[in-house]
Amino acid sequence: GYDISSLLKETGNVTLDGGFTNTASCTSAITYIDGDHGILRYRGYPIEQIAEHSSFIETSFLLIYGHLPSPAELTEFEGRIRQHTMLHEDLKAFFQGFPRDAHPMPVLSSAVSALSTFYQDSLDPFDEEQVEISTIRLLAKLPTIAAYAYKKSIGQPFLYPDNNLSLVENFLRMTFGVPATDYDVDPDLVKAVDLLLVLHADHEQNCSTSTVRLVGSSQANLFASVSAGINALFGPLHGGANQAVLEMLERIQAAHISTEEFMRKVKNKEDGVRLMGFGHRVYKNYDPRAAIIKKTAHDILAKTAGSDELLEIAMGLEEIALADDYFIERRLYPNVDFYTGLIYKSMGFPTRMFTVLFALGRLPGWIAQWREMIDDPTTKIGRPRQVYVGEGERSYVPLAER
Ligand code: ACO
């Protein structure tokens, strides 16, 4: 019941842009997206080329330092990460304090937040060496934290990282391995997880990255800022979407309803049902990451004996959506998460770990964006304005008179 244009006049010279649909919060040289044409580039390199040729570690280097590493730089970077994969024994004790059925995302953000207490020697955002060691610690320790969060949820003992293994191999072994039992890391699985991490590595000013930048703009340290980003990613409209997609497919399967019937509900907006994994704030064309993933989804599912039926339901939904006016008019296409949940499930990850995998992938993007923000001398503390729509001035009524 208020007239927004007159309120805006009263408020003065501000722009009201809820959800920041048309407001740039910063300049950035990291990731380029052209949503109308389905283009995504990291530091200028098309995502298709990165996905084909680059590893997750190399992609992390590229995002953070701005150039593709030389062989020596890559070896040095990877070697430093390998040296920092262990968690302090006292930090391991944190995991015991959470309820057994805790979702691993808040466990992840809590443990990352706690890194500020363990590494008080590296919290100065303007000391290059401290930022550098925090960067390495985060990249090295997040997979260990993620695996421990999972082990805790299934009541199994934690495995120490094995520094003869690569980052992804180590993560898979710590997640699926059992102490005193050999765990053979499947190279195809490693390749597929690596690809998924690469595809999630950065996506300019999305909700979690904007959160990392906003928290960091108060000069909060890298651990504190990334912890906030993990919490932003927890939401179902952002990182939680891959979990939501799988749950949607499983509901359709369990209820034995046809894809046509489900789509009718979506279009009629019955009970607020949305086609999860469809639509994107920026992509108004096919998400290029979804195109890459769709190609590999079949191969991975064939190898891991994943659910063909769920994949068929997914493809059926996509086929209807791509030919339906509701979706065409609104320019709703599959986003990266439409297929990732299916792939993660077929690899043996429980649904609650899907968003954790997204966080592992997005970490180098958060770090790169935080560092770009801190290094930019024009950065100011983020402090949006508002348009006040509450009561005008009124006089206080004493408690006895109410
Ligand atoms: N299913 C059905 N209808 C949809 C969907 C969907 N997935 N997405 C948007 N719409 C409709 C809306 O109802 C709205 O219709 P209207 O004009 O009749 O009111 C119109 O399309 C515009 O939608 P908005 O919500 O205004 O678009 P916005 O840019 O704010 O939302 C979002 C983008 C949140 C991604 C949305 O498309 C959505 O909820 N998708 C499903 C969740 C999802 O997959 N999230 C993952 C995002 S990608 C990522 O984090 C990696």
Automatic annotation (TrEMBL):
Catalysed conversion reaction: oxaloacetate + acetyl-CoA + H2O = citrate + CoA + H(+)
> Where do the TM regions start and end?
none
Superkingdom of origin = Bacteria
**Pathway linked to the protein:** Carbohydrate metabolism; tricarboxylic acid cycle; isocitrate from oxaloacetate: step 1/2
Q: Does the keyword Transferase apply?
A: yes
Please verify whether the record's keywords include Iron-sulfur. no
Instruction: List the keywords (alphabetical).
Output: Transferase, Tricarboxylic acid cycle
To which protein family does this belong?
Belongs to the citrate synthase family.
**Name used for this protein in its record:** Citrate synthase
